[in-house]
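Example record

Each entry pairs one chain with its bound ligand, PTJ.
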Amino acid sequence: MKEEIEIPPDHPRAESLMIREKLVMNYRLGIVVSQGLIAHGRGEAFDYLLGERTIKPAFKAITASAAAMLLAKHPVISVNGNSSALVAKELVELAKITGSKLEVNLFYRSIEREIAIKRALIDAGAEEVLGIGNRASARIPELSSERRKVDVRGIYSADLVLLSLEDGDRTEALRKMGKNVIAIDLNPLSRTARYASITIVDNVVRAVPLLINEVKRLKFKSEKELLEIVRRFDNEKNLGYCIGFIAKRLMEIKKKKLLYPETLEGSS
Ligand code: PTJ
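Structure tokens for the complex follow.
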């Protein structure tokens, strides 16, 4: 059976299909695990409910995240198989403009995958990639998964960690270590979303470029202004708005009022 096809650019779901192709290609390269393809399917379902666009509460979380990254003394961007496949270039740019370190951290850890992801980040312009092999010799306390293995120069000593496509345990453990966590997760109900300090309920492919723009916009704000942006952000409330947005959208679809999803504004 032929598995690879050319996606017609005028196909109504071309963008979504091309993202799938990217993941499958990276699966073949050994960067994405088969479980990562399943995780992407869960993300797609939530993205569908959101209307496949960045909603207002996500914009608010992006602004708060940009301010928090600019304030952080030792920010680290955690990269796994799916995030490398989807936004390697953008994560490298985000790291450069925020002075963040890039660290590979995997649930399904193997040296082959670590090296493949490191190579993808280097090809995307990274100068240094942490968390490879025995450099990931520090441990996150109270965590038994492979994600506990971290680099002492990176996640272990970070004051802020940005992560995406994650299972909730590490977020909770990182928070217990006193770190700020920014999570990009399409599922506002996930444990990751609930435990993070700031959750961006959006697709990484949209959220990371927007975050880059927001960092550039806020870069020259004073520390006081940035602190005020972070202080005003309430993650629990914001997640409530995201859930409210989905509920409202579904009700409007049910009532057949919503012919064109783009006419529905994000609730805030
Ligand atoms: O590369 P590894 O070894 O670290 O493994 C990565 C996976 C993704 C397999 C692992 O972390 C995993 O199993 O994750 P979960 O528990 O399935 O959680 C993934 C979360 O990311 C879910 O809440 C999805 O809704 C969400 N998600 C999926 N695709 C996207 C997404 N969030 C943002 N953007 C996406 N494109």
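The CA atoms of residues 150 and 156 lie 6 Å apart.
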